[in-house]
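Sat 14:20. Reprocessing the chain from the morning session after the first attempt stalled halfway. Input below, unchanged.
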Amino acid sequence: MASIEEVRAGIAQANEKANESQGALQSAQSSLEQAQSELQRITEGSSQADVDEANNMLAQAVSGIGDVLQAVQAAIKASEGVASRL
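Finished this time. Tokens:
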């Protein structure tokens, strides 16, 4: 069985990786927002249903990344709570 210090160190390491992932997720979210903005700009006035579908899918992707970021933040907070109680 791992010692308390080993568990704390493992939690810190996991949180470091989770923090790194947040940066990558935020970058992806920003890129998708830019893609959506550009698609909306370039297809403004189009009556093709595929354009709306593509814009909606990009919006869903942006929203999904936001949900993932919230889950990662909640996981970090929860694991920090565990570490503080050890």
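Helices lie at 4-42, 49-85.
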